[in-house]
Design goal:
about 60 residues, alpha+beta, Ribosomal Protein L30, Chain: A, 3-stranded antiparallel sheet, globular
Length: about 60
């Protein structure tokens, strides 16, 4: 399994509660914050739900 870097690029204001909870579960609080995760199906599914709020690159 590889690693991915997830960066929050947009605000969660006016987003659904589910999207806010997903960002929090990924460990993203502030815009510009970067977290690194394994690219498991669970993480990729979460990233897919908030793909308009984050950018993803391979680590």
């Amino acid at each position: 399994m590889g690693k991915i870097k997830v960066t929050k690029v947009k605000s969660a204001i006016n987003r659904t509660k589910n999207q806010k909870l997903i960002l929090e579960a990924l460990g993203l609080k502030k815009i510009g914050q970067v977290v690194e995760h394994n690219d498991t199906p669970n993480i990729l599914g979460m990233v897919n739900k908030v793909e308009h709020l984050v950018s993803v690159e391979e680590a």
